[in-house]
Design brief:
Elements: H1 8-23, H2 31-54, H3 60-79, H4 86-104, H5 107-117
Helix pairs in contact: 1-2, 1-4, 2-3
Amino acid sequence: MQKTSDIIWQDVQHQVLFEILDLLKEPDADRQVLCRLEAYTEYHFTLEEEYMLALDFPGRDAHVESHEFFRKEISQLVRDKQEPDAQFREIIATFLTEWLTRHVFGIDKELEAFILESSAK
């Protein structure tokens, strides 16, 4: 995966998210991969949102709203009682990877620039 941010912690966390999404495509992937994705997503989003709050990021509301969409999608998948089959996991992984890619190279770039201009790098 290509570099996603000039902020080291943000780039590393994005890479982990993409790695977990890739695990969903593995033949032996199960609900635990979705649970891991949910937990790591929450960890990452919470940290970004703490930075937004601490730095009074002007795009905070829209950014958090975007995070909420992703949280909701993953939560619904985790709460589903039926174990996803390989085809469904592939669809899930593709959808979430495309969403995350657009998010990371779109709205996250605004946050990245704001953080880099602050003293809180």
